[in-house]
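re: that chain from earlier
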Amino acid sequence: MAQKPKPVVNYRDDNWETMLYVNLTVSYLFSKKVSPSMIARKYGCIIMTASVNSKIGLAHGAEYAGSRHGLLGLMRTSAMETAQGITVNAICPGLSERR
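^ sequence. v structure.
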């Protein structure tokens, strides 16, 4: 799925589309599916898994960083649209050390 890091001009379009689907579209589809019942109950919580790369760029990793930036936009918009009793958040893990 993921390509080795390389400049955008060298990306394969099918890998770009796969990365966007897995990292962004799946979260969109899930949110769209569960939101109506949460809205009806006026209660719920959606937590999306993003990345530290949702907040910063990633040299030679535009497909990943772009999909994760998009996820934060989706999360923020969903949170605004469902603000009455439903929380929508994203966690943004980064690198961690093994001990």
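Residues 13-41 form the longest helix (29 residues).
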